[in-house]
Amino acid sequence: SSLTLLDQCSFKAINICGMVQSEKDDTDWQHTLTTSEDKDHTLVGRCTGRGYFMHLNTTEGSPGQSAVLESRFLYPKRAAKCLQFFYKFDGSQQDKLIIWIKKDDGTGNVRKMVKLQTFYADEEQHWKLATIPFNSQTKFRYAFHGIREDPGNSTGGINIDDVSLTETQCPTGVWQITNFTALSGSTSQGDYISSPLFYNSEGYCFVLRLYPHGVASSSGNYLGIHFALCSSQNDGALEWPAGNRQVTFTVVDQDPDLTQRMSASRVFTTDPDQLSNGQLLWNKPSITGSLDPLYDRHVGPFYGWNSVLHRRELLRRSFLKDDSLIVFATFEVVEDPGSVL
Ligand SMILES: [Ca+2]
Ligand SMILES: [Ca+2]
């Protein structure tokens, strides 16, 4: 497998996978057991009295106080990394979570800090997936740095669970569809949900449509996913038609153990000569497409898979967790177009 798993943690055990609490900060993250109100992401309440997550209480102390949780030392085999974890803010609207890595300075000392990403509290209060790409060729640690900003107005804190670190590229597009059961109930065959806008590494804009009950003409009860290019300010510099690029959709099996996952993936490669209604299918969306008021930009023809996953499979495995469905999408150049034929 091309998946190189460097680290993962569902915080099941008290040793928290060898992670370390900093002693130079103001407080600690708490290894916290699931309750009926606050469920971890690993089991989401499926086993009463089981399932742990890490929690930083932001209701106490003073503004600006922080807690840092560091991974053990990790030793890379290749450069690319993708850190993934679930987080949930249920404290104050001001709370923050910053993700750092601490790299070898070249002499064997792990002390060179790189700030990767900052997450801000929102009103949603459900588990959200973070995917953070970075590179490191030398030994390093990653760290979760939580900051309590407004204890007087906090009703909870910052929570993290189901951390994984792989030596792979992160997916370009990560689409988390929350309240999936209600969405399923209010849609029927032929109805679709529109993704946000995504940009690939080259700067191409793309969007997805997910059909919870399949496309209008399909038989069987499958999830379908279609892909389209959209216009952006990058279009003048990009190659058109956007051929010989691979589109991958993955409906993510959210099993906390990455080695046990059986995600559902579909792949196709864009053919630069393919026609659609007499036009080159993968040409500029401003030529092939029409203005979509949802995005306020041109969206080209949709193309994809009518049957990515049978709906009965949704209820097996861990495709739905905390009532969220997660779709990864990538659109990347095929380095050697000859090799895919
Ligand atoms: Ca857990
Ligand atoms: Ca601490």
From TrEMBL:
Q: Which Gene3D superfamilies match?
A: 2.60.120.200, Apoptosis, Tumor Necrosis Factor Receptor Associated Protein 2, Chain A
Q: Where are the transmembrane segments?
A: none
| Matching Pfam families | MAM (PF00629), MATH_2 (PF22486)
Q: Which SMART domains match?
A: MAM
- Where does the MATH domain lie? 170-331
Specify the MAM domain's residue ranges.
7-172
UniProt-recorded name of the protein: Meprin A subunit alpha
**Which species is this UniProt entry from?**
Gekko japonicus (Schlegel's Japanese gecko)
Q: Which gene encodes it?
A: MEP1A
